[in-house]
Amino acid sequence: MAIDIEHLPPRVRTRTFIDRYSAFARVNHWITAITFSLLALSGLALFHPSLYFLTGLFGGGAVTRAVHPWLGVILLISFAGMFLQFWRYNLWNRDDTQWMSQIGDVVKGDEEKLPELDKYNAGQKGVFWGQALMILVLFCTGLVIWDQYFGGYVSIETNRLAALIHAVMAFFAIMLIIVHVYAGIWVRGSVASMTRGRVTGGWAWRHHRKWLRREAGTKHAHRE
Ligand code: HEM
């Protein structure tokens, strides 16, 4: 029988919560998100004259040029922290291939037709591996064009090629993050996992049932 908990007195309105992210993982995620945003803004400011006004956010053109690569170093370290914590949950399996083949049901929200999922769905895994690869390429090409320290080590042609790859990767990385942020907001209850560290039992049952089944009965599930 379905119970409408909204009509129950607050004392009785208990919910089951499942821990999803430790405080460390959340701080790590938000440092990554802030660094990524600052990188995108400073990178766009240096990319095209029409966006030069964005250098105002960093204290002028010279400061933006100096700060941007260091933000890249911070992003690499911060994302590496997330990579080490999450890579094993992002390994591809048969459920992911099935989930992708039913992308129409995903968009319609017909989740009962989809396979039960572990901690992440195929879309989230795509964002994870996509960002891992792109951040690495951005970092390596960024070093090549970091003239202050590495200028003169490569030919002008190599330098130009690295700048081109850097810009193309940055474009795709920004697009992918827009998808990530949109998906996080679109699936109600997800943002709370990255702010408060926990999700409701209903959220886990609906979106990540295999993960819930594993977590149920462990110290990660509690009632409030
Ligand atoms: C304002 C910006 C952002 C918002 C609102 C946001 C939101 C979220 C949310 C809600 C989750 C939890 C999803 C879940 O547990 O099901 C998450 C996970 C995650 N986020 Fe973000 N995020 C942002 C920026 C970023 C950036 C810039 C990166 C990396 C460059 C990033 C990488 C990740 C990763 C790796 C995960 C774990 C999912 C996985 O490993 O597949 N996020 N994010």
Automatic annotation (TrEMBL):
InterPro entries: Cyt_b561_bac/Ni-Hgenase (IPR011577), Di-haem_cyt_TM (IPR016174), FDH_cytochrome_b556_subunit (IPR051817), Formate_DH_gsu (IPR006471)
Cofactor(s) in the UniProt record: heme
Keyword entries, A-Z: Cell membrane, Electron transport, Heme, Iron, Membrane, Metal-binding, Transmembrane, Transmembrane helix, Transport
Keyword rRNA processing: no
Location of this chain's protein in the cell: Cell membrane
Transmembrane regions: 27-47, 67-87, 127-146, 161-187
Principal cellular location given in the protein's record: membrane
Span of domain Cytochrome b561 bacterial/Ni-hydrogenase: 20-197
Record keyword Heme present: yes
Membrane topology designation: Multi-pass membrane protein
Family: Belongs to the formate dehydrogenase gamma subunit family.
PANTHER family the record matches: FORMATE DEHYDROGENASE, NITRATE-INDUCIBLE, CYTOCHROME B556 FDN SUBUNIT, FORMATE DEHYDROGENASE, NITRATE-INDUCIBLE, CYTOCHROME B556(FDN) SUBUNIT
Protein's UniProt name: Formate dehydrogenase subunit gamma
Organism name: Chelatococcus sambhunathii
